[in-house]
Amino acid sequence: MKNLIFLVIFFNINLWCIEKCGFDKPELDQLRTLSNCTNLIMQKNYLSPGGNFLIHFDTTGIESPDLTDLNFDNIPDYINEVATVADSSYKLLIEKMNFKDGANGSDDITDIFVIELGQSGAYGWARPIGCNDSCIEIDNDYLDSGYLTQGLDAMRVTLLHEFFHVVQFDYRCGTGGNSYFYELSSTWIEDLGYPDINDYINF
Question: What is the pLDDT of residue 118?
Fold first, then answer.
């Protein structure tokens, strides 16, 4: 009976990872190849107020987020919100919980790429670059019908989840056979950071 319970939990965790991170969609392989952080060039970037994240985004074309700028700082409000969530994630994981800074390269800055993922159904992913660097890719609005949680709430839990993967990469180069633990703990972090956003229940 214990083995059966373990198998049910194990497969549910891996199914959640597959759906949330988009790994059940082979058509994403080419998208991942094209946007692997080392060759993705975007039109603008914005350093978060905390100085730990560089957010890359476009202002024209399919990758562009909503360009509404209600505070007139020449940065789209969506990008400002991404920066706020990123800095908040850093405070939770690094300053409060005392994890390592994350695999963020020689500049100690984590790169976040805001791109169009909605057509794919993937929420986002963290991509290791060798053993000492990585980046995060998230959707530019989370408004497509494929997202079970939409808008800023989806962005918040996704960005926190993916940044925890960046932290995990700093402890071990590659997930090995432990991807289930990476996903389980990143789901726990979502609930810790945003207890009122229960996106994971959808999975």
Answer: 81
